[in-house]
Amino acid sequence: MDNRKRRRELSQDIRNKVIDKHRKGKGYKTISKQLEVPVTTVAHIIQKFKTHGTVANLPGHGRKRKIDDKLRRRIVRTVSKEPRTTSKDIKGELLDQGTSVSDRNIRRCLSQSGLHGRRPRRTPLLKGNYEKARLEFAKMHVNKPQRFWENVLWTDETKLELFGKAHQLYVLRLKDEAYNEKNTVPTVKHGGGSVLFWGCFAASGTGCLEVVQGQMKSQDYQGILDRNVLPSVRKLGPSRRSWVFQQ
């Protein structure tokens, strides 16, 4: 193994000075001493200038890139259609078509295109009519002043899984596409192996929190509201005459 320290590359300005002094008749040792550059480096720069007419770095002659622009666009298009596609999936698909590319090169290609493996956002599983209702709500309230939102008490239920997730999913997506439907994982309110909580919050902070015992029925829900809503309003300070309850 070569343990020698790698020298820093000389700047374009230093190389030009070497050629300038050489043209003025200075010897290799004199140039080396004046510019504090090794004699062998001075000789190499001058020889390169005589051969190629330049002291700039020449284009490399390394191995041809495995993934050209056409193949890169194809890989990106595949992931854009199905963000859960893995580099191994892409490798297998390309191999079936007669193209051999390593997992590492595929991941590098995706990374350079801004596509990184990220955990999918968890969003409620909504049917079409609920999606329309939420959109209408947003349109109706988009221009409400800040004072209005300061008097809103938001309530909801959430489920915590006791034993964690069976496996962790990842999606390949751009930074600003977190909530595209294909990049999310739908969630539901109820299920086994979990605990259900009811809670609320307002602009000024969090309100009461209650564990839901067993399956929540209509009368259970009404009891939760009776025990928690008004105490939360008194704690958080919305206007008692004009506050809004928002489920």
TrEMBL record:
Pfam families xref list: HTH_SB, HTH_Tnp_Tc3_2
Residue ranges of every copy of the Sleeping Beauty transposase HTH domain listed in the record: 6-55
Residue intervals of the Transposase Tc1-like domain: 72-143
Highest taxon listed in the record's lineage: Eukaryota
A Gene Ontology molecular function term of the record: DNA binding
GO biological process, one term: DNA integration
Signal peptide limits: none
InterPro entries: Homeodomain-like_sf, HTH_SB, RNaseH_sf, Transposase_5, Transposase_Tc1-like, WH-like_DNA-bd_sf
Protein name: Uncharacterized protein
